[in-house]
Design brief:
The chain is about 70% helix and about 10% strand. A two-stranded antiparallel sheet has the order 1-2.
Length: about 120
Amino acid sequence: MADAKQLQFGQRLHNIDRNHRKLAKGYVTSMNHDGLLVARPRPKEVRLTWRGVAYVVIIMMAFKVFLYAQIGAEAYQERVVALQNGSFAQQIGAYAMAADPITAGLANAIGASVK
């Protein structure tokens, strides 16, 4: 019995500490339906950073290189052309996935090890 109460107390302390850390980063107060003022953590902002953009570009380039090396230049080009004939979103994808000299060069360099 005492162990269960200690675990419950420890969990309550953990929750209080977690809420305190969240509120320390900023909070917004609002009033409940009964008139009680309650502090809630400030909603997180989604920030676009240069590092995040760089990671997305690097991952996309790695995907293009791997795909180009795996299926070959002709099949890759056929799939890009098929995307160009599709919807607007597919046309954007075709533009992004179009083979460039860097993609072809890297794919040829690693092509033997992938197959």
